[in-house]
Amino acid sequence: MKEHIFSKKRILLLGSGELGKELVIEAKRLGLEVIAIDKYKNAPAMQVADDSYVIDMSNKNVLKNTIKKLNPDFVVPEIESLSIEALKELEEEGLRIIPNARTVEITMNRDKIRDLASKDLNIRTAEYQYVFNYDDLDKKAVEIGFPLLLKPLMSSSGKGQSLVEREEHLLKAWSDAQSNSRGNVNGVILEEFIDFDFEFTLLTVRKDNGENVFCLPIGHIQSKGDYQSSWQPLEINDLLINEAKKITNQILNNLNGPGIYGVEFFAKGNDVIFSELSPRPHDTGMVTLVSQNINEFELHLRAFLNLPIPKITLLKPSATRVILSDEEFINPKYTGLNEALNFENTKVLLFGKPNAKKGRRMGIVLSSNDDLNLARQNADEASLSINVISN
Questions:
Q1: Whole-prediction pTM value?
Q2: Architecture of 10-97 per CATH?
Q3: Has residue 224 got a pLDDT over 90?
Q4: For 333, phi and psi rounded to 5 degrees?
Q5: Domain spans in the chain, listed from the N-terminal domain onward
Q6: Catalytic: 339?
């Protein structure tokens, strides 16, 4: 049998947030070269990458010319707000986009991934309507019914998402969505509010050969569409998890690109309802840094580098809780780190973001314990002890 030779590769990371930072760390462990790009200086992933650039990734010519100049082996998007046309053209020229340009395009806008699931694949989602003109908002909101969720068609970390309980709140929700929308997409999605029992993420690795490998389901809590805490494993019955796996297989077999996918679901009674999908490491999956034998960032790399992925196992029940800023300022400092690190089997990751903003995620606490409830409690209490302060 011919020996497999592994050589140094160059990875270009588009978006350099906290998830990108962990991906760079894992890539460096494999001796890879990583160049990080974002719209601002000193972003988290830039702090550990070999090189970095600040550019407007939504500008087709700027993005395409930068990628061609750097000549990477792989382009790995970490954000949605970028020129998909540049990626499509470069992929046609033979460049490897992870997982592929079509998947990046479908998942960067809520309308495309929702239409793929609901209309093309006949997968149950929340009822939804698109609104591109404010004059149509009232009519389509009534069709969905109150309460409802109003979201930008493109955003990150739940920004611009509102729970609208009455018609008179639509204008403010519309304004919030427009001001927090990413890219050049003007419009919102109105979504049925589902009073679910719980929500969860099914992290799934798609290998280069098309095989899908599932991690244990991850429970999570969100506020205004933004992740607050997660834990693994999640107590869930076989009926629900088997249905979630079936739905995930349907979607990933259609998208068909290697890498890790964060697939989000609502569970209500015996029903599983598809919510969202990210074709990259997922916020809630940061728990795998301590819970699994192979974390989500290494799994992402192994998938598109076509490296072996042996059995994924749980090391110990684990949980996370985010560290948020209450204010906006430059060069944040932190108090309470000593108190947080006094908790047994607990780690604190500070992302190193140069600026704090109200509600911005500045770090997370990770905690493990044989008792999952104690791991969650320790993560929560350790997080509460840390405060983000100004100079």
A1: 0.93
A2: 3-Layer(aba) Sandwich (3.40)
A3: no
A4: -120, 170
A5: 10-97, 127-192, 198-389
A6: no
